[in-house]
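Data card: per-record layout.
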Amino acid sequence: MIDNNDDVLKIIYKVTERLEYKVDQDGIVTIIEKQDHRIQRFFRKLRFKIPESKKITLDEYGSFIFLNIDGTTNVKELGEDLEAKFGDKVYPLYERLLLFLNHIDVNCHYIEKSNLFS
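The structure for this 118-residue chain is written out next.
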C-alpha cells in the first residue's frame, strides 16, 4: 500500500486493452465480460445455460470516472472533475474515488496503473 497521500493522488490509470464495453446515449457504461473459462465451456457442452458473456452496468458516477480514465489523467484530476460535475453528492470524494478505482483495478481488472509516482 502507498503511504503518502500525495503519491496516491498522482497515480494514473488506463483502461485495459482487452476490456469490452459500450456507452449508451446517457453516458452510462456497460462492461461486457466474456465467460470463456474452460469450466464454463465444459458445462455449456453439458447443456447448462451459462451465457457467453455477462454485462455489468455502472452508475452515473462510475461511468463518469470510467470514461475519464484515459492514461493521462491522475487521481487528483479525476476527483476534481467528479466534484465539478456532481458537487457535494460525491463526498467524501477521495475516499470513495480511491475505493472505486482500487476495486475496478484489483478485483475486476478493468483498469491498470500506467504509472507510479510520475
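Known properties of this structure: The chain has a mean pLDDT of 93. Residues 93-107 form the longest helix (15 residues).

See the next section for split statistics.
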